[in-house]
Design a protein that fits this description.
The protein is built from five helices and ten strands; from the N terminus they run ββαβααββαβαββββ. It has 192 residues and is an alpha/beta fold. The protein starts with a strand and ends with a strand.
Length: 192
Amino acid sequence: MTAVYTWDVFATLDGYGSYGPEGDWGGYWGKHGPEFLDNRLAVISEKQRMVLGANTFRQFVELLGPIPVSDLDPVNSRMLSMPTTVVSTTLAGPFAWPDVTVVAGGAVDVVARLKEESEVPLRSHGSLSVNRALMAAGLVDRVQVTIFPVISGQTGTDPVFEGAADFDLELIESRTFDGRTQELIYRPTLHS
């Protein structure tokens, strides 16, 4: 049986995955509410393995690493405790991350092997260039996009799907949290 791979990504309405230093938005663009946070904790509390690219992992270590686990909110505490595979040819440990495995090689080869060997679903958060390559290779089973109610045309960085191949998307699920944040889960198929 092949493990299901979900690319989990946060974006603004105009498709940016983050904002630059001049954008003083705060985490989740300052638009998270209790329904979103409860759902987020439920989603990442399921038994699964996180898969990250090197850049996203570095950002998480920089953001979460210096904070004692007891001081983290439940969502970030859970993320830090999840078994995590990082695809990288440049990283070398040790890391301030309890259960991380760094696997050298190309993302397509590493994730294809993980999908075959993993007994639990795989989830990747962010890791834009890695996941665009995985989508093009047909390895992403679900794209879970959480759209925050902001447009960051002046401060937005990292367009989520910039340079991606063309895909048809089948909507599997959709939800609205706190009356403003939209979660859309799609099954992608390479457009031919």
